[in-house]
Model the fold of this input.
Amino acid sequence: MTETPSPAPSGRILLVEDDPDAAMFFRDVLTGRGGYDVTHTADPALALSLATRETWGLLLTDLHLPGMTGLELLAAVRAVRPALPVMMVSAHDPALLHLPYGFPDAFLHKPVPAGDLLNTAAVLMARHRTA
Done:
């Protein structure tokens, strides 16, 4: 078993996922095993508003969302919070995607193993804190 670095107690993650089962999995793993403070919304417009108004250590978003894609959300967030790390998840192969808005800091393929989720979140948030 790989040991995951401990997050800072103030590690806040904004989770944008419209699939209730996936959202529950991400939230349970990140809070229960990772100790992170996770705020979830299925609405990317609300997520953009939250990302603009509040301080976050990581944005975790699905690629396919209602009303705005994860890529469009990535571009909008980068415009207001360029240093905020973004982890994107999708069942689609990232090699087949056209990424006109730039690349997320990490891309994980669904279904995401819990260990990969925790390790990637820890690395991105640690990098963000030291930047």
Observations:
- Residues 14 and 59 are 5 Å apart (CA to CA).
- Helices lie at 20-33, 44-53, 70-80, 114-130.
